[in-house]
Amino acid sequence: MSFDTKVQVSTSNFEVDSHDQFCQKQQKQVRMADSARVSLTILALLCGLTTLGTSGHTLTVYNATHLASDFNLPLWPEHFDLRPSITLVVGSAIVVLTNMVSLLFSKVQMLRDRTLIHTSLTFVAPFVGFAAVMTSMIFFYAVNASTTVDTLQGWSCRWDYAGMSTKPYFGTLCKESQTALYLSVSLVPLELIVLTIAAYQMVLERKASALIPSRKTSSPALS
Questions:
Q1: From which residue to which does the signal peptide run (predicted)?
Q2: What are the pLDDT digits (tens) for 202-214?
Q3: CB 14 within 8 A of CB 21
Q4: Helix H segments across 66-144?
Q5: E runs forming strands in the chain
Q6: What span, in angstroms and rounded, lies between the C-alpha atoms of 144 and 151?
C-alpha cells in the first residue's frame, strides 16, 4: 500500500470516527431530552390526578349536601355557580388522559416502535394538555370574578371557620378547592415546559435520523 493510499485511508477513518462521535452526541441529547420529558410528564400526571381528585370530591360533597331552597336551614345559597369547579375537573381530566397516553407510548416498547404515532404524540399530548389547562384557568378566573354569584370555593372558604361535626366540612372543602386551583395554575408552566422539551426532542430526533444514511454513505470502501 502506497503512502498516498495510507494517508487517504487514515483521513477516511478519521472522518468516520468524527461522524460516529457526532452521532453518539446527538443520540445522547435525544435520550436526555426524552428522560426530562418523561419525568416532567409523570409530574404533570400526578398534579392532574390530585387536581381531579380534590375538585371532584368537592363537587361530590356539594351534590350530597345540597338541599332544596324550601328547607329552613340550607347549607348552600340558592344562586350558586358550579362552573369554576366543573372547569377544574374537566381540565384536569384531559391533562390526566393526555399524559397517560404519552407515557404509554413512551414506555411500552410495542407502542414506542410505532415511530410516526410515537413522534406525533410526543408533541400533541403536551400541546393538548397545555391548551386544556390554559383554557380552564381563563374560564375559571373569568367566571370566578363575579361578585353577585357565589362559587363552591368562595362559599366554603367564607365559612371555613365554622366548626362542623358532619358534611360538608367547609374548612376541608376550602382547602381542597384551593389545592385544586393552585395545582391547576402550576400545570400551566409545567405543561408548557413539557411542550417545549417535546419540540426540542423532535428536532433532535430528525437530526439524528438524518445522520444515519449519511453514516452509511461516508463509510470508506477499501479494495
A1: none
A2: 888 787 676 655 4
A3: no
A4: 83-107, 109-112, 115-144
A5: 80-81, 150-151
A6: 7
